[in-house]
Design brief:
Structural class: alpha/beta
CATH class: Alpha Beta
CATH topology: Rossmann fold
Order of helices and strands: EHEHEHEHEHEHE
Number of helices: 6
Number of domains: 1
Strand order of the largest sheet: 3-2-1-4-5-6-7
Number of strands: 7
CATH superfamily: NAD(P)-binding Rossmann-like Domain
Helix content: 25-40%
Strand content: 5-15%
Bound molecules: NADP nicotinamide-adenine-dinucleotide phosphate
Shape: globular
């Protein structure tokens, strides 16, 4: 039975990743900050016959990442998905865009976003690389964003966009460094999706985005390792 680990699995895209892979019969390690309040995720786990387990993971805390690695011991992970992310200390409704615009940057929010969106994915990969290496598929993904594109910047979003551009650099570099171990590494763009982060006017539903990303994950191989791919299978400009 293939296995997947997903961070930020209590809501939004992470929850949908777990829902769809569990429905396909995968073993899923679902990570979230507070398993006690993750009602929908617990429902999915409860109906999975033990195939979905829930693990506490707070990505701003390196000790929490180490504890997860110990908890997982030497269980193989075929597909590792760094999905959790943040727009910053303030979301859109709280004036988040203004808080990361030129002239009104709130630097503590940028630091926070960098820790969660850029540094934490690398920490998770470093902690779990042994589990991926002993799996069959050997694939690692980070859910990035086209807002991190340097070639086609969206305008504004200085903090969030730069943390995604930076994590793309991390993933592209790891693709080179891990190729020798047969490990595929990729950045993903989920599209603009109706979640807490994407908001109510987003054109895509989580189910559609994740169905597309599942196809991208299935098709990913060493031949395409190091690419930045969207939910529709198309390459995203760096
Ligand atoms: N939705 C979009 O349109 C869109 C577009 C492009 C890229 N993305 C990317 O897609 C990924 C998923 O986004 P989403 O739309 O599903 O967002 P979301 O609904 O806001 O969910 C974010 C997830 O990340 C988790 N998270 C945030 N900070 C964390 C921390 N310090 N430790 C552990 N978990 C943390 C949240 O957990 P809590 O519930 O505990 O806060 C939640 O599970 C993100 O990386 C995002 O940047 C989204």
């Amino acid at each position: 039975m293939p296995s997947i680990l997903v961070t930020g699995a209590n809501r939004g895209l992470g929850l949908e990743f777990v829902r769809q892979y569990a429905a396909d019969g995968w073993r899923a390690y679902a990570c979230c900050r507070d398993p006690g309040t993750a009602a929908e995720l617990r429902q999915i786990a409860g109906k999975s016959g033990g195939r979905v387990s829930i693990h506490a993971l707070s990505l701003g805390d390196p000790e929490s990442i180490q504890a997860l690695a110990q908890d997982l011991d030497d269980h193989p992970i075929d597909v590792l998905v760094n999905n959790a992310g943040t727009y910053g200390l303030k979301n859109f409704a709280q004036g988040g865009m203004q808080a990361q615009a030129f002239g009104s940057m709130e630097y503590d929010g940028w630091e926070h976003a960098f820790a969660i969106n850029t540094m934490a994915p690398l920490r998770v990969i470093e902690a779990l690389i042994g589990n991926v290496a002993k799996s069959t598929e050997k694939k690692i993904f980070t859910v990035s964003s086209s807002m991190g594109s340097i070639g086609e910047p969206p305008g504004g979003h200085l903090a969030y966009g730069s943390t995604k551009a930076a994590v793309n650099f991390v993933m592209s570099t790891l693709a080179m460094e891990l190729r020798g171990q047969g490990i595929t590494v990729m950045s993903l763009h989920p599209g603009w999706v109706e979640t807490d982060m994407g908001g109510a006017t987003a054109p895509l539903k989580p189910a559609e985005s994740i169905a597309g990303l599942k196809q991208v994950i299935a098709n990913a191989s060493l031949a395409t390792s190091g690419q930045f791919i969207g939910w529709d299978g198309n390459r995203v400009p760096w």
